[in-house]
Amino acid sequence: MIEIRFHGRGGQGTVVASILMSKAFYRAGWQVQSFPFFGVERRGAPVEAYLRLDEKPILLRTNVYTPDHVLVQDSTLLHSIDVTRGLKPGGWILLNSPGTPENVERYAGFRLAWIDAGRLAARHGLGTRTHPIVNTTMIGAFARVLEIPPMEAIEEAISEEVFIKTGKNIESARDAYREVQKVGLIRKAGTG
Question: Where do the domains of the chain lie?
């Protein structure tokens, strides 16, 4: 079983991102389970969503406490919450960041990738310049990072579920798939 935790803020489409990924994985032949966790339900408040996938039926019915991978849609969350909480060693962290994140050493033991999803979403007219909607962009990048599901499954999920600017959302996901930056495993300073 693979477990993924999504971090974002209310109004950014974090829950929608987890649903789109679950539909893409389902199309690719996986068993899936996707659900949100809300603390304070208001725009801008931290939000988590979860995705489980497996080749056999999923019977587990709990939150995801020890994810294999983490997707972070809003890098300002890095200052207030520990996105690595419970993350399994060697797991991927995908950040929405315009460049190499600060203090990468804090991600020692994990694999790191980033994409400037805000820039791509704005380029495609998704949201506004100051509040871009990055969920489809992020899932395109995540598909490349994980090397699953195939991009075609992502495109089909977006086509079925996103009814506003569908083509632009697909284009942004494709661009992110091509442009995501993967560093791989981060090591502590002074270790080989």
Answer: 2-185
